[in-house]
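step=encode ok
step=design start
structure_in=
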């Protein structure tokens, strides 16, 4: 159970999953959607999601080809959880406001 929670835990993983649920994205597009995340942290989180089989990394051509990130079938199975957390968060947003 702990490993399953670690696969989607942390500050950024569910947010990355949320953005990739809409459509596959290049790294730069993900950065635009999440301006608060550093390049280093985004790269680390994507690597972990890839290692856990949640995200797929596809090269789009010859080197230095852009890379597109997308959800795997397993990644899509997480979407109901992500939606539940998003709905819960919206209901309690005032509590987390600075």
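sequence_out=
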């Amino acid at each position: 159970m702990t490993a399953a929670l670690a696969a989607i835990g942390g500050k950024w993983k569910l947010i990355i999953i949320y953005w990739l649920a809409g459509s596959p994205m290049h790294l730069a597009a993900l950065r635009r959607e999440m301006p608060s995340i550093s390049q280093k942290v985004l790269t680390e989180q994507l690597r972990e999601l890839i290692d856990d089989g949640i995200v797929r990394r596809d090269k789009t051509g010859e080197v230095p080809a852009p890379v597109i990130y997308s959800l795997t079938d397993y990644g899509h199975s997480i979407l109901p959880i992500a939606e539940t957390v998003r709905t819960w968060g919206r209901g309690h947003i005032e509590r987390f406001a600075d």
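step=design ok
step=annotate ok -> Strands lie at 25-26, 55-59, 67-71.
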